[in-house]
Give the backbone structure.
Amino acid sequence: NKKYLWNTRLTGDATAKAILKVAWDDGARKICMIYRNDPSGIDTANSAREYWKGRGGKTLCEEKYDLEATNFSAQTSKIRLSHPDALITFGYSKTNGIIVKQARDFGVSVPIYGIDFIPDQLEIAGKAMDGYKYAVDQFDVNSTDPEAAHFVKAYRAFFKEEPEFYGANYYEATYLLADCMKALAKEHKPITGANIDAKIREIRTFKSVYGGKMTLNLDGTVKKPMAIFQIQNGKPHLLKRVTE
């Protein structure tokens, strides 16, 4: 609900609830959470806390960290001493890999769940990432969907590496904007922020490299395929697709 802000990625509250359901189904009842000390992290934690409480679970501890942090010894020590059934990390990018590695190094042996993964995390955490489960936008490099297969092939050819969901999101966001601009050009309307915003509100449903379509909700969030993955032997494996 912010002017001109549209998310083509699922927001943290959606992926947090999805991964918490997985943790609950796996038998967890008492959890610890670690999250960024910024509005995004706090909002995600608030949503997760209420969801977990609603299921009847207990949150034993909540640890925040600053965005520039690289040492999580204090947080992971408190988590270990709380004896949770699971650790839920709302960390992103390389930071998430550091959190997982340091949690294992400090003796946190319970299952770890999250809402983010990129290959860089494996380079940092190594074998510590094995078993990690996460909920993210459903981007599968092995997808047979024509849009997804085309993107994966082109990405591999250009960058000489495997694509991940961040790249997929930026890719489809670019085409979303292009579609809006083409529509405005056909109507002989100037390409302005206000006109693009109005066109998004009019069209709302666009093609997705995740397969099928994505729909932008009027509050700026998105509805698109989501899935649960797990790191097994150093590689992400699709466990299941999430249906709302």
In short: The two ends are 21 Å apart (CA to CA). The longest strand covers residues 58-65. The mean pLDDT is 94. Strands lie at 30-36, 58-65, 86-90, 112-114, 133-137, 205-207, 213-216, 222-223, 226-232, 235-242.
